[in-house]
Design a protein that fits this description.
Blueprint lengths: L38 H7 L2 H7 L19 E5 L5 E4 L3 E2 L7 E2 L8 E6 L6 E6 L5 E6 L9 E4 L4 E5 L6
Antiparallel strand pairs: 1-2, 1-9, 3-4, 4-8, 5-6, 6-7, 7-8
The protein binds zinc ion (ZN).
The site of zinc ion has 8 residues, from loops.
Length: 166
C-alpha cells in the first residue's frame, strides 16, 4: 500500500523571489503584512484596473491616471487597504506621466523588491501592509532624497487634508 501525503502550503507570505543568496540585503523586510486576502477577495474589492496593477503588477499608461497632474494638499493612501503611503508635500512634477514622490510618508510604509522583469533591473515598491504593487523607485529624483517613487494612480487614493475639504 502506498500512502501519499500531500502537503499544500497556502502561505503566500512564505514565497520569495528566486534571487541569489548574495542579494539578501535587497530582500524586503516584510514587516507587518497585516492585510491578507485571497486573490478572489481582492478581485471583489478592487476595480479590474486596480486589480491588474495592485495584484498582478501591471502598469497604467503614462498620462492616463488620476493623479499624475494632481496638486492638492493631503495624503495618498493605498487603494487596496487604505494605509497612508505618501504626503502631497513630497510630490513633484517628474514629467514621466505618473504621480511621483521623493519619499514615502513613513519609511516602513513601503517595501522594496528587486525586479528583473522586462529586461531591466528595477526596484519595485509595494504597500507594506497588504503587499499591493505600487510602482518603482528610481535614483533620479530631486533633493533631499534623490529618489523618485514612480507610482500608478490606480494603486493610490487621495485623501484631502483635514479641514480643507470643500
Ligand atoms: Zn495596501
Amino acid at each position: 500500500m502506498v500512502i501519499l501525503t500531500v502537503l499544500i502550503l497556502g502561505s503566500g507570505c512564505a514565497s520569495h523571489y528566486p534571487t541569489p543568496a548574495a542579494n539578501n540585503q535587497t530582500m524586503p523586510k516584510n514587516p507587518t503584512s497585516t492585510v491578507q486576502l485571497s486573490e478572489e477577495e481582492w478581485k471583489n474589492k478592487l476595480t479590474p484596473e486596480q486589480f491588474r496593477i495592485l495584484r498582478e503588477k501591471g502598469t497604467e499608461r503614462a498620462f492616463t491616471g488620476e493623479y499624475w497632474n494632481h496638486h492638492e494638499n493631503g495624503k495618498y493612501n493605498c487603494a487596496a487597504c487604505g494605509a497612508p503611503l505618501f504626503d502631497s508635500g513630497s510630490k513633484f512634477d517628474s514629467g514621466c506621466g505618473w504621480p511621483s514622490y521623493f519619499k514615502p510618508i513613513e519609511n516602513n510604509a513601503i517595501s522594496e523588491h528587486l525586479d528583473k522583469s522586462h529586461g531591466m533591473i528595477r526596484t519595485e515598491v509595494t504597500c507594506s501592509k497588504c503587499g499591493g504593487h505600487l510602482g518603482h523607485v528610481f535614483t533620479d529624483g530631486p533633493a533631499p532624497t534623490g529618489l523618485r517613487y514612480c507610482i500608478n494612480s490606480a494603486s493610490i487614493q487621495f485623501v484631502p487634508e483635514e479641514g480643507k475639504v470643500k
